[in-house]
Every structure is written in C-alpha cells, then in structure tokens.
Design goal:
The chain has 381 residues and is an alpha+beta fold. 29% of the residues lie in helices and 27% in strands. The protein contains nine helices and 17 strands.
Length: 381
C-alpha cells in the first residue's frame, strides 16, 4: 500500500490517502470524495502550489476545530451551574478540614438554640412570679377594726367601723403550716413568703420586748401586746393592739422586699374566734406557737421571747457571761431571750439557753443575762 499527499477539495486540509483507494474521507471536515488520477498527480504536476493549498487547508481546519471547541465550552458553561463564592473557597480545603468546619458551625448553631431557649424559660419564670405577687386591693381604712371595744358605745362604733366579713370568708378554713418561717422571712431563697390563708399568731417582735426585758414585771401579760394599724394613704398609723398569742388567719398581704430574704409590710388578719379583722406588721406574724415547745426550748427561743420557771434537774448549773457558776433559787421566773452564742467559754450543749434573771446581785438589784441548761426551764408564758 502506497500513501500519497492530497488536498481536501472542501476544506483544503492536507491528507494522506491510499493510492489504491477509490474514495477518501477528510478527517478535519468529514467530507467524502472520490479519488481520481488527477488528485493523485497533484503532487507531481504542481507541487509548490499544492503545498501552499495544503497548508492553507490545514490552518483553516485548525481554526475551525478551535472555534468548534470554544462553542462546545460555551454551551457547557451555560448548562452547568456556576460555582458560588463560598463553593470556590471550599475547594481550597481538604475533605477533613471541611468536615471540621461543618462540625464547628453545627456546634455554634446548637449553642445559639440553647441560649434562646434559656432566655425564654427565664422570662416565663419571672412572668409567673410577677403574676403570683399581684395583691388583692386593700380594704378601706374605715373598714378595719382598730381596737378592742371596752364599752357599749365602743361596741356600737365597732359595728359601724369594723370590716364586713363575707359569709364565704367565715366558712373558709385556714391552713396550719408551722414549717413557714413567719415574721416576713423568706421560706426559700429570696422568694416572697405567701401567708394568705395560713393560720398563725399575732406575737410580739424582738424589738418590742425592750420594755419587757428592762423590767422585773415581765410576767405582766399587759406588756405583751401587738400593735394594730390602719392605712392613711402611703402611711400606716397605729390604732390599737391585740394580745400576744392571738390566733389569726391571714386574708391579705402587702409586702416589700428589703434585702436578702427579708420582707417588710402589713397583713390583714382575721381572728379565728370572732372573725374581726385588723392590720398588723408582718414582723408580728408567726406560724409556730413556740410557747408550747416544752421539749424544744432551742427552737422556741429562736422564734420569740417567753417566760419560764427555773428548777435545777440537769447536771449543769446556770452560768454568767464569764461562764462562772451562778446560785439561782429554784422557782425563779426568768425571761428567755434567745440561745447562747458560739463565742466565749460557753458550751451550748450544757448551757445553751439565754435568759434574763431579776434579783439582788453582788453589785445590786437588776436584770442580768444568764445561761441555762434547757432541762432546767419550764415554759409558763
């Protein structure tokens, strides 16, 4: 087989063809044509002109092929989705790096979700707390009984000025709950205590016992009184008193947070025996009848002052502020004011109850603070 040079009659490209073939196909433009002796002899009859034509055809074929390739690329680029700026950037990282980045973004997303949920929960809790603190409207000042009537005229005045008690309130029973601290102290953290509907007692507060502690007549029950009040706009005026240990039910409360877990304010209370109502300071309200705590004098002394009778039955003598032995006659009435502190030479397991004793001492007659064993004291008031 012999190959000869020829030019494509359509595109002019240079071709190598078999001299024995009857036809040929151009590999550039795809044209098919018959081969005759004239074509086969082009090289020999006019070689220079044929070479020139061949070169033109070849260059034209290359240009057409290039243009065709460009057209194909443009068509491909129009059908394929374009890469975004982010996609272009991600191609700069390896697969493990992209995995780490995705994990970091996922963690950040979950953190944001938890923060949002936390804010929603906190807002919900505060909203409920605010609604729970909303108080009922106060009774008119003229509707509250302010003192215990002593005469017929006072009783008539009481009928006109005492707060009207609804039938539903008369039949409504209170709840006893001695676990509540009373005196405006929070029962949990710094939350406002809720006393409405709780049965408790009007009792003297520690600051009010000053005159009781400074007289040897501390057994006089007329000294043990609780003030009552009426509201005059933003002020509260003292109007009368209730006996210490009066049993009451709280009907309304108006409290204000002071600091830590302490609250100040006033309570509308109703006596359980006759249904009469009064306003008292929250510091005068307790839930524990501590004067009955004969077997737990420590708890009683922490709740309020009380009168007790001394009789030596334990293995420990009473002592003074220097922890020295005291000679106190059996049957002596003492005023218990608290528990022994942790400082000094005292042993709280031996002489843990603090009380004032009035008698003739070495330096004269007066009230002296002493320390007793709780087994040697019996509550009398």
């Amino acid at each position: 087989m012999k190959l000869v040079d020829a030019a494509c009659p359509h595109c002019g490209a240079s071709l190598k063809i078999d001299s024995d073939s009857k036809n040929a196909v151009c590999k550039y433009c795809g044209a098919s044509f018959l081969i005759d002796d004239e074509v086969k002899h082009v090289r020999y009859d006019n070689a220079e002109e044929a070479g020139y034509e061949f070169e033109k055809g070849r260059q034209r074929a290359k240009e057409e092929a290039r243009q065709k390739a460009q057209a194909e690329r443009r068509k491909y680029s129009q059908t394929e989705p374009k890469k975004t700026h982010y996609a272009a950037r991600t191609t700069q990282y390896s697969e493990p790096e992209r995995t780490k980045r995705r994990a970091g973004i996922g963690c950040l997303g979950w953190l944001i979700v938890f923060l949002v949920l936390g804010l929603i929960i906190v807002f919900s809790v505060y909203s409920r707390s605010g609604r729970a603190k909303k108080q009922q409207p106060e009774l008119p000042a003229a509707a509250v009984k302010t003192a215990v009537p002593e005469s017929t005229e006072a009783k008539e005045e009481q009928k006109q000025t005492s707060a009207p008690v609804k039938e539903s309130e008369e039949k409504k029973d209170g709840v006893r709950n001695e676990s509540k601290n009373g005196r405006g102290r929070s029962d949990r953290g710094r939350e406002e205590p809720h006393y409405v509907g709780v049965i408790g007692y009007a009792a003297v507060d520690f600051p009010q016992t000053y005159k009781i502690e400074n007289t040897d007549q501390f057994e006089d029950e007329s000294l043990w009184t609780v003030p009552t009040y009426r509201k005059d706009k933003q002020f509260w005026e003292e109007t009368g008193s209730l006996p210490h240990k009066t049993e009451v039910i709280v009907r309304e409360q108006n409290l204000k947070h002071e600091k830590y877990g302490n609250y100040s304010g006033y309570l509308l209370v109703e006596k359980t025996d006759d249904g009469s109502q009064y306003y008292i300071d929250v510091k005068n309200f307790i839930t524990k009848p501590y004067w009955t705590y004969q077997n737990d004098l420590r708890e009683a002394a922490l709740t309020g002052d009380f009168v007790a009778r001394y009789n030596q039955v334990s293995d420990y003598y009473p002592v003074d502020s220097g922890a020295d032995k005291l000679e106190i006659p059996n049957g002596t009435a003492v005023l218990v004011t608290g528990v022994t502190g942790t400082g000094g030479k005292f042993n709280r397991d031996e002489t843990g109850i603090e009380a004032i004793v009035w008698k003739q001492w070495r330096n004269g007659y007066g009230g002296v603070k002493c320390h007793f064993n709780e087994k040697d004291l019996t509550i009398t008031y």
